[in-house]
Amino acid sequence: FFRYMRQPIKQELSCKWLDEGPLSRPKKSCDRTFSTMHELVTHVTMEHVGGPEQNNHICYWDECPREGKSFKAKYKLVNHIRVHTGEKPFPCPFPGCGKIFARSENLKIHKRRREKPFKCEFEGCDRRFANSSDRKKHMHVHTSDKPYICKVCDKSYTHPSSLRKHMKVN
Questions:
Q1: Architecture of the domain delimited by 8-85
Q2: Which among 60, 106, 121, 166 is least buried, having the fewest CB atoms inside 10 angstroms?
Q3: 8-85 and 118-169 share one CATH topology?
């Protein structure tokens, strides 16, 4: 059985952090290579990003579009570096989903779409929503309130998507 299992693909991950040498000479890339994402991330965090004493939160990754613009906090720099490394440390816990995310906030948003913690407060309505703003838009369905008005013909709607559909047709 085991001889038929595919071998893991050997990947070589390279650190493209540029040195902070004198401005007069071209900057050199670190170019250390690693066989796992964990090794690369640990290296970048420990060797280049620095510890809590570091107050210069600048990404020096080769060809980074931020061009030396500083982050206000170390964790923001660490999150940003994932753009370069491709690290995605936040997997979806739902069985069979398989999605992974670079930022915990994105995982939280993804989980909310499935969990829908915001229940409609109108008695007898079982609708649930991923966020409070969607629930608020839905609440107009239960009232005579139609706040979304066409500027061309004054027709009004309970939901912005209905107004958008109307605008496409007219």
A1: 2-Layer Sandwich (3.30)
A2: 121
A3: yes
**Per-residue pLDDT for 21 more than 90?**
no
> What is the rounded CA–CA span in Å between residue 74 and residue 68?
14
- Reported pTM: 0.60
Q: Which are the contacts of 4, defined by CB distance < 8 A and separation ≥ 6?
A: none
Q: Which residues lie below 8 Å from residue 97, measured CB to CB, with a gap of 6+?
A: none
Residue 141 to residue 132: CA distance in whole angstroms: 15
Region 49-78: mean pLDDT is 87
- How far apart CA 127 and CA 129 sit, in angstroms, is 7
Q: What are the extents of the domains in the chain?
A: 8-85, 118-169
Q: Which fold has domain 118-169?
A: Double Stranded RNA Binding Domain (3.30.160)
Residues in the chain: 170
Do 116 and 130 form a contact (C-beta atoms < 8 A)?
Answer: yes
134 close to 118: Cβ distance less than 8 angstroms: yes
Looking at per-residue pLDDT, the higher value among 86 and 143 belongs to: 86
**Mean pLDDT, range 89-114, rounded to an integer:** 91
